[in-house]
Design brief:
The complex is a heterodimer of chains A (about 900) and B (about 375). Chain A has about 900 residues and is α/β, with parallel strands linked by helices. Among the domains of chain A are: about 110 residues, no CATH class; about 170 residues, Beta Barrel (Barwin-like endoglucanases). In chain A, about 25% of the residues lie in helices and about 10% in strands. Chain A is built from 26 helices and 29 strands. Chain A has a 6-stranded mixed β-sheet with strand order 22-24-23-29-21-27. In chain A, a hairpin with a 2-residue loop joins β25 and β26. Chain A starts with 5 loop residues before the first strand and ends in a 9-residue tail after the last helix. With about 375 residues, chain B is of the alpha+beta class. Chain B has a single domain, classed as Alpha-Beta Plaits, CATH 3.30.70. Helix content of chain B is about 35%, strand content about 15%. In chain B, α4 packs across α6. The radius of gyration of chain B is 23 Å and the shape is globular. Classes of the chains: A alpha/beta (about 900), B alpha+beta (about 375). At the A-B interface, α2, α3, α23 and β24 of A face α3 and β3 of B.
Chain lengths: ~900, ~375
């Protein structure tokens, strides 16, 4: 970020939530960079930015889409980069139909299930003579691709995001048709142009509340700070992810950054600011239900019954790039877990892996608890009773468990909800009625244990134990090691086949003189080692040394190299002043200590730096290899002019100008032919709850969002629906610098509690006037789920916006407080106001936008509280059905056109 | 300058004046509020290191400031000030006048303001200074028209590395954050009036209280022109397991981490500041860095930037803690023209002496007259 000439922070309050990382924004600013902060509120980030742009929460695709339209319409994109490095020139097959023609859904949409058949989004397949530049025969047309129309897809593949890892969906081939004039109507470039044609500055004004002149200010800053000489960087956090189309928000920025040539270059990119010290680490070595380490997918029951079926689902041997080596990564992982028991004959114990039967995310598990399908629950480093969406549903779920283990520093609300939670106070439940047995284990904090943090830059940094944990306080590592030891001891005489996976685990970590597991030994196992051969027992130096024959083991292929040469490189700590600005000797970044991913794109197609100013990695003709400031993210000796055999696959198929080596075609994806379950191009939909009607399409909300129509999950009516005026205001939730998420690490600390002692809401002076709210007094905020109280901060930092000619008020709610007697400070939880609706790609909840009412005074106590909530529901006419339709009704001709795209493969062979 | 004069006012080396031989050089802070993000890490680090009790757990509803001001249990305090466009324009204009007066330091704003009329307070636009720049009205028109200018015109306001102008139209709103701390004055009123010797001048040129000597008389509280030093209230809330609140009734303030300095360590607040808004070092270097930064901001068109405490000819002889502010000191709760309570001691003694002589004379006259 320090190298950026312009930084756009959108969907993030970086200065408050990532104050340490913000030093690089400060550094860039000191070097003269322009910083623009786009956010519903004027925050501490806005205070340091050059410009703050207020935006209506949830409308970001309109703004970003309009920026895409702007750079396309005014030829401001980086053409050389776009043609060579993105899929702009690639042709999409002729069955694809855009949202513009189907009033808000893409081809392949099934209104019954709310899911897409993605087959019509695939690339057109070439004639086998190599993909490059065989389009454009003068009038901008290319030959129709040979063969059928169903390529790069499986007909049975309905959108199921949890069935593939970070590799996205595989493609059957990389044999694409390209028109490098970008003129072909089915080229990605032209599709993109048409898709965003109605995303205009005026639309931004009407839907985002951003004045046209301010739109042009942003557009100008990005355009002037992109290209050969300059780069623009985006940073986002949960303000983009926590939406029912959150993944598409980020996709929109990715498209813009690719068009501007800002990927794989110093000072470019999109920074995904992770919310905790090692949240990046917890997706690399995942705590997610659908991933195995290194972004390998979890196998699905019925689809991945054998290792071969599983591997085929990750990549096709005919596609490009390093995902074709997934067999080596998987075999090494299984060897690391099951050691000698894992052999080539038994598919390396692939059958020991549990199988997914569907989505088993946080919220599906919560609802399964309420349905009494879950007996026990481990909660570690999390406080769902306060920190997860729909607090009431969370606490209800916990009360249905037989047992609950909470490991934390403090007696957080998740451990005490049965005693003094809000539902106990309101009389909806009582300790006598809750049978959950709660086990509380005190957890060691980061100075009481050694290990790594992996931060936003994918960098592992070692931290050392400073003091031993007191009494029975344990680290996670020790706790789980001991749990494993004890369970295995209990099972040691078992002959039951189902116990084999536990008994065969390699569970032999060395311990120190206090009996604590050596964390470094675990990192070494994650790095991997040679099992057989000359170097048996030695660590792996790089992931390309991993083999699929069981001769190597490694717990996470992307981390291979952190222990290269037997040295723990996460301990590298050479001060910045003693090395260059890439600072490769501080910590270790995966993969292979690369600091900028896809950095081949920092050079032009011929391998020369785009400019002296942005020189980073380039082709050295004399040495015949890629050199530069960073570790080249490219086959080191691949000549820029190299063109692969069209039948080749894997790394050998990467052309000299294919910088995006993990993508199936080596190009940056403006259009996602597979992988995004809710559309190949981001499209604006309103949030689940919105006072605004979608002016772009009849389709109001994301038609693929995951909806749970339940009595305990009601929604307020949106747009012009009757009753929407009962909850007329938009609320958004967020964090403050002074506290940490649900408060477990801050509300028990006097010094932090003192700095922000009470739950508050932030409102504009105009809203305060309208509703009689007084600064410092109390207000009650009511949603279709719950009502909470908060102290009022009246401030110009929150501004009413004019949306479609109407004033829309936004209310800001920090979510750090919870109800319970153990913390230094307590308060109502903002997350109690939220319902559960999820992004279909990643199952994240929409917690950044909801509808509410606000009125002065404290909320009612006891049973009066649920009565108030019910009274509002009744006034709004809210039922279980409200807001739960996937697709909104459309005229008959549109409906028929949509239906035709769904069945085209079975009917007339795609003659749309 | 005589020894006595040096003790009470003007430029001097306070450690040397206090009798330290081979003092290690005066230490100080440079707090650059233009890059402060208001994270309050300085407040927390200070309280952690010095084991200070809580002031209380009440929401002030005054922006994000819930610790109020500096006191016995808040030795670093971050102020939050929300301002509208008129206030921002006024700040830019008043700063520009300071530049023209050539006085980026303590006292200057007050002088400028008193020449023209009412001093600039919260929400009040300063009156124009005669012969010093255009009126505020003209200035507002000028800055608001900036948007319409071509980039070439804008270049006069400083440019980024790529040539685009740094300063665009005046923002409609801004949120100032500033971390305040004891000034460690060259001429420290608190130290001068302390009857017990509990307050002393350290070898680093800083002013430190010895809690075990202080008898809680409170003279120092009134003598501090910045309102920094206070006696610890018995209403303070403990952070200790045993419920004990140390030093109740005793005068307390920032020690510039005297204990850390003795071990060659950076004070806790500066050590923890993530944006280098708080810098620590030799006071001369701090002043130099502050002057360089204010010039840089002026070149970029941010004329609202000005220094506080860097003027050694002010009423306290300059301060060990130097600040870069983006508005008048009063906006941050700082006095515009601080004067050490004892600086006029010679004058007072002289006057008292003349008065005494006069009295004697009068008595003599009366006596003699009575005789006649």
């Amino acid at each position: 970020m320090a190298n950026a000439d312009c930084i756009i922070i959108e969907g993030s309050n970086m200065a408050e939530c990532h104050p340490v990382g913000f030093q690089w924004v400060s550094e860039a600013k000191a070097r003269g960079a322009r910083v623009i902060h786009i956010d519903p509120r004027f925050t501490r980030t806005s205070a340091i930015a050059d410009t703050h742009v207020p935006i209506r929460a949830g409308s970001d695709v309109v703004l970003l889409g309009a920026l895409i339209n702007h750079v396309l319409s005014n030829d401001l994109y980086f053409r050389d980069y776009v043609v060579a490095y993105t899929n702009a020139a690639t042709l999409v097959n002729e069955d694809f139909v855009d949202t513009e023609d189907l009033d808000g859904v893409f081809s392949g949409y099934d209104p019954q299930t709310g899911k897409y058949d993605m087959s019509s989004w695939a690339y057109a397949e070439g004639d086998g003579n190599g993909g490059d530049g065989n389009g454009g025969d003068g009038d901008g047309k290319v030959e129709e691709p040979g063969g059928g129309d169903e390529h790069g897809s499986e007909k049975s593949d309905r959108a199921a995001p949890h069935s593939h890892g970070a590799a996205g969906a595989p493609m059957e081939h990389a044999n694409v048709v390209r028109d490098e004039t970008l003129q072909h109507p089915r080229s990605v470039f032209q599709i993109l142009k048409r898709h965003y044609a109605r995303y205009t500055p005026e639309m931004v004004n009407d839907l985002c509340g951003i004045p046209v002149h301010q739109f042009h200010e942003i557009a100008k800053a990005i355009a002037e700070n992109s290209g050969r000489e300059r780069t623009t960087c985006f940073a986002y956090a949960l303000g983009w992810t926590q939406h029912s189309l959150g993944a598409q928000f980020i996709r929109t920025a990715a498209i813009l950054q690719l068009l501007m040539g800002n990927m794989g270059r110093p000072g470019g990119g999109i920074m995904a600011l992770r919310g905790h010290a090692s949240i990046q680490g917890s997706t690399d070595i995942p705590t997610l239900f659908n991933l195995l380490p290194g972004y390998l997918p979890m196998p699905m029951v019925g689809q991945h019954d054998t290792l071969e079926e599983y591997l085929t689902s990750i990549s096709s041997p005919r596609q490009k790039g390093f995902w074709t080596e997934a067999d080596a990564y998987t075999a090494s992982l299984l060897k690391a877990w099951w050691g000698d028991a894992a052999t080539a004959e038994n598919d390396f114990c692939f059958d020991y892996l549990p199988r997914l039967s569907g989505a088993h995310g946080t919220y599906q598990s919560t609802m399964a608890m309420i349905d009494d399908e879950v007996d026990g629950f481990f909660v570690l480093g999390q406080n769902p009773a306060v920190g997860s969406a729909h607090g009431k549903m969370q606490r209800d779920a916990l009360s249905h468990l037989k047992w609950l283990v909470v490991r934390d520093f403090q007696l957080i609300e998740t451990a005490t909800f049965w005693r003094d939670g809000p539902e106990v106070a309101s009389g909806e439940t009582s300790p006598e009625e809750i049978d959950t047995e709660v086990f509380f284990f005190p957890a060691a904090n980061h100075v009481e244990k050694s290990g790594t943090f992996t931060q936003t830059q994918r960098m592992l940094q070692w931290h050392h134990q400073a003091i031993r944990p007191a009494d029975d306080v344990q680290s996670e590592l020790d706790f789980f090691h001991e749990l494993g030891v004890r369970i295995r001891e209990r099972l040691k005489d078992s002959t039951d086949e189902r116990d084999r996976p536990l008994l065969d685990l390699t569970w032999d970590y060395p311990t120190d003189e206090h009996g604590e597991v050596d964390a470094e030994a675990v990192l070494r196992e994650i790095n991997g080692y040679h099992v057989t051969g000359e170097r048996a027992g030695e660590v792996l130096d790089k992931f390309v040394d991993m083999r699929a024959d069981g001769s190597t083991a490694g717990g996470c292929w992307i981390y291979t190299g952190v222990f290269a040469g037997g040295i723990n490189r996460s301990k590298n700590r050479v001060p910045g002043q003693q090395q260059d600005d890439v600072a490769p000797e501080w910590g270790w970044a995966w993969p292979m200590n690369r600091r900028v991913l896809y950095n081949r794109a920092s050079a032009d197609p011929q391998g020369r730096p785009w400019s002296e100013r942005k020189k980073y990695v380039w082709w050295d003709e004399e040495q015949r290899k890629w050199v530069g400031k960073d570790v080249p993210d490219f086959p080191i000796d691949r000549d820029p002019s190299f063109r692969p055999d069209p039948d080749a696959g894997g790394p050998a198929a990467i052309a000299g100008d294919d910088p995006f080596i993990m993508q199936a075609d080596g190009k940056g994806w403006l259009f996602a032919p597979k992988g995004m379950v809710d559309g190949p191009l981001p499209t604006h939909y309103e949030a689940q709850e919105s006072p605004v009607s979608n002016s772009l399409y009849t389709q109001q909300s994301n038609p693929s969002r995951l909806i749970y129509a339940r009595k305990d999950n009601l929604w307020s009516p949106s747009g012009t629906q009757p009753g929407s005026d009962v909850y007329p205001f938009v609320f958004t939730t967020y964090r403050l610098t002074e506290h940490h998420t649900a408060g477990g690490m801050s509300r028990w600390l006097p010094y932090l509690s003192e700095l922000q002692p009470e739950m508050f809401c932030e409102v504009s002076p105009q809203l305060a006037q309208e509703r009689g709210l007084v600064n410092g007094d109390w207000a009650t905020i009511i949603s279709a789920r719950s009502a909470i109280e908060a102290r009022v901060l009246v401030t110009d930092r929150v501004r009413p916006l004019t949306i479609n000619g109407h004033t829309v008020h936004q209310i800001g709610l920090p979510y750090h407080w919870g109800v319970g007697k153990d913390a230094v400070v307590e308060g109502d939880g903002a997350n109690d106001l939220l319902g559960v609706v999820l992004d279909p790609n990643v199952q994240i909840q929409e917690s950044k936008v909801g509808s509410c009412d606000i009125r002065p005074g404290r909320r009612p106590r006891g049973e009066e509280l649920p009565r108030l909530v019910a009274e509002y529901q009744s006034r709004a006419g809210t039922t279980v059905e409200t807001g739960t339709e996937h697709a909104n009704p459309v005229p008959e001709d549109i409906r028929r056109r949509r239906a035709a795209t769904l069945t085209s493969d079975e009917s007339e062979g795609g003659s749309s | 300058m005589s020894y006595l004069q040096r003790q009470l006012g003007g430029r001097t080396d306070p450690a040397q004046d206090a009798g330290w031989q081979d003092a290690p050089g005066r230490k100080g802070f440079f707090t650059d509020t233009s890059i402060c993000i208001g994270c309050k890490a300085c407040e927390v680090a200070c309280k952690e290191w010095n084991a200070i009790p809580l002031d209380g757990l009440a929401l002030s509803a005054n922006s994000y400031d819930n610790t109020g001001d500096l006191g016995a249990s808040t030795w670093r305090h971050v102020a939050f000030v929300e301002q509208d466009a008129d206030r921002i324009a006024a700040a830019r204009e008043s700063g520009r006048r300071l530049v023209e007066l050539g006085m980026p330091g303590v006292g200057a704003p007050a002088q400028a303001a008193t020449q023209g009329g009412a001093p600039a307070g919260y929400g009040v636009l300063p009156a124009p200074v005669e012969d010093h720049g255009p009126s505020l009205g003209d200035m507002l028109t000028e800055t608001r028209a900036f948007e319409d200018r071509s980039p070439e015109d804008g270049a006069s306001h400083g440019t980024t590395v790529d040539g685009t102008p740094m300063v665009g139209a005046l923002p409609e709103f801004r949120w100032l954050m500033a971390s305040d701390v004891c000034k460690h004055c060259t001429h420290a009123g608190c130290l001068d009036v302390c009857p017990t010797g509990a307050l002393f001048r350290s070898e680093h040129g800083t002013v430190v209280v010895q809690a075990d000597i202080c008898n809680g008389c409170g003279y120092c509280v009134g003598a501090c022109p910045f309102g920094v030093i206070e006696r610890r209230s018995d209403a303070s809330t403990t952070v200790r397991g045993d419920g004990h609140v140390p030093n109740i009734g005793i005068a307390q303030k920032c020690t510039l981490c005297y204990d850390r300095l003795q071990h060659d360590q950076t004070p806790a607040c500066a050590q923890t500041c993530p944006t280098t808004s708080i810098r620590f070092g030799d006071r001369d270097d701090m002043v130099e860095a502050a002057r360089a930064r204010v010039s840089q901001l002026h070149e970029q068109g941010f004329t609202e930037a000005r220094l506080y405490g860097a003027n050694d000819d002010d009423g306290v002889g300059g301060t060990g803690s130097v600040f870069l502010l983006l508005d008048e000191p009063e906006v941050y709760g700082l006095p515009p023209d601080p004067v050490c309570a004892t600086s006029r001691l010679p004058e007072m003694f002289r006057t008292a002496g003349y008065a005494g002589l006069g009295m004697l004379g009068a008595a003599a006259v009366a006596f003699l007259g009575g005789r006649s």
